[in-house]
TrEMBL record, chain B:
GO terms for molecular function: DNA binding; sigma factor activity. This is RNA polymerase sigma factor. Residues 104-156 form the RNA polymerase sigma factor 70 region 4 type domain. SUPFAM superfamilies: Sigma2 domain of RNA polymerase sigma factors, Sigma3 and sigma4 domains of RNA polymerase sigma factors.
Length: 67, 184
């Protein structure tokens, strides 16, 4: 797990984009700001629908909500 | 009981914030980015049988999103991107460690990069991919990815007149940049 973390740590020093790099930290500030906005409800709803449709199919339930 | 679909969904959910940030960086607009992420989620769901659980779902989703973006661009005859480019819209969460002016300049500089360099530096510097993963996402060689990131970094340093090499101190790249002639 620690290994996985280190591997996927954004902007490792070798890129010149590490924690003390101006460019790296500005990039992550912008990117992070969008990430922190959270996921819009429409997307969460879509995933929910896809998942439910699949479960219904797997259990052999006929899909009747489209009527 | 726990259906495979459910854990696929959970893994997708965990990736969505980062996927969406990447989409914003590609499209420059939040509404377009959300449409793109939505298309990506549907595509990914349809081809989930081709995804092996336990492998890198984040890289897989980024690849689908990027392919979807460029295929839509081609279909639309590559409409001109909004002049301000990336991350143009008001951010609802303001990154507190920087003055807003500071980040505005940075956004402008980022938008002046060629598309391939911009996506490279974002994938490596912000999304947290390795060069190998980013190269696979962009369907290019690892060496190409490295040179795109390096050129992006030099260009940004040049535009912002800051050093991207603070981890190391000056090296060949930043020395070259700082001694170069700035066009403005």
């Amino acid at each position: 797990m620690t290994q996985q973390r280190a591997r996927t740590q954004p902007g490792r020093a070798e890129d010149g984009l590490g924690p003390n790099s101006d460019i790296g930290s500005r990039l992550r500030a912008l990117y992070g700001a969008v990430q922190e906005e959270g996921v819009p409800d429409q997307l969460l709803d879509l995933l929910e629908k896809l998942d439910n449709a699949e479960k219904a199919q797997q259990t052999g339930t006929t899909q009747r909500d489209g009527e | 009981m726990s259906a495979e679909g459910t854990s696929f969904k959970r893994e997708m959910l965990a990736t969505l914030p980062s996927l969406r940030a990447f989409a914003v960086s590609l499209t420059g607009k939040h509404d377009k980015a959300d449409d793109l992420v939505q298309d990506t989620v549907m595509k990914a769901w349809a081809k989930q049988s081709s995804f092996q659980m336990g492998t890198n779902i984040k890289a897989w989703l980024f690849t689908i999103l990027r392919n979807e973006f460029y295929s839509q661009m081609r279909k639309r005859g590559r409409e001109v991107q909004d002049s301000d480019g990336v991350f143009t819209e008001r951010l609802s969460v303001h990154p507190s460690q920087y003055g807003s002016l500071d980040l505005e300049d940075f956004k402008k500089a980022l938008s002046q990069l060629p598309d391939d360099q911009r996506e490279a530096i974002i994938l490596i510097g912000a999304s947290g991919f390795s060069y190998e993963e980013a190269a696979a996402i962009c369907d290019c060689a690892v060496g190409t990815m490295k040179s795109r990131v390096s050129r992006a970094r030099s260009r940004l340093s040049e535009l912002l007149q800051i050093s991207g090499e603070a981890d190391y101190g000056p090296d060949a790249v930043s020395a070259q940049v700082t001694s170069g002639n700035h066009s403005f």
